[in-house]
Amino acid sequence: MLTDLPNVLTLSRIATIPLLVLLVAVGAPWGAFGAALVFTLAGITDYFDGHFARERQQLSDFGRMLDPIADKLLIAATLMALVGFGHLPGWGIYPAIVIMLREILVSGLREYLAEIRIGLPVTKLAKWKTGVQMTALGLLLLGHPGAKFMGLGFLPMDALGATMLWTAALLTMITGWDYLTAGLRHAVTPPPVTPPPAG
């Protein structure tokens, strides 16, 4: 199970987190470029682990459990590194807080609903949110120093990343509200009563 390719890719996403944080901590232009590259490669594995799981019929409960955990660990570590090392421009900490709170909210809802055997499907808007969020974080990790290292110092990476992070935060609030109302709907609806067996 652990050696299945989809699970290996998911575990690799978790394994890259210490390297990513270390590269951000370096503070050098090559470190910013390296952090953005590592983050991008980790994000690509998020697509391919699901793709290979479906293609090879290697879907498993372990993989379904691990995949969202890996995503949330990567996003949380990246946001904390950006905040901790001062790489979020302006008021960037506020969308970062919104995103972190939403991740905790959805995780709690999924845990509760799993206990009553109800799934919380990922919506199309949530997938768009994830795409915008991952792009924003990649741009912020690269920043102006990393862009300059690549010979692209004329591009406003910080401003682009901050704008996309605010957009991701807006989508986060919308999708978070959708998930919250769906969870509350199940929480306030009494479970169906199973009639006793006849005789």
**Number of strand elements:** 0
Domain module count: 1
Low-confidence stretches: none
End-to-end distance, in Å?
Answer: 45 Å
Beta fraction of the residues? under 5%
Overall pLDDT confidence: 85
- What's the alpha carbon Rg, rounded to whole Å? 19 Å
Number of helices: 6
**CATH domain topology:** Four Helix Bundle (Hemerythrin (Met), subunit A)
The major pleated sheet works out as: none
List the helices and strands and how they pair.
Layout lengths: L4 H22 L2 H27 L5 H24 L8 H23 L8 H26 L7 H32 L11
Helix pairs in contact: 1-2, 1-3, 2-3, 2-5, 3-4, 3-5, 4-6, 5-6
List keywords for this structure.
199 residues, 77% helix, mainly alpha
Can you offer a commentary on this structure?
It is a single chain. The chain starts with a helix and ends in an 11-residue tail after the last helix. The chain has a single domain (5-188), classed as Four Helix Bundle (Hemerythrin (Met), subunit A). It has six helices and no strands. It is an all-alpha fold and 199 residues long. The model has no long low-confidence stretch (mean pLDDT 85). Helices cover 77% and strands 0% of the residues.
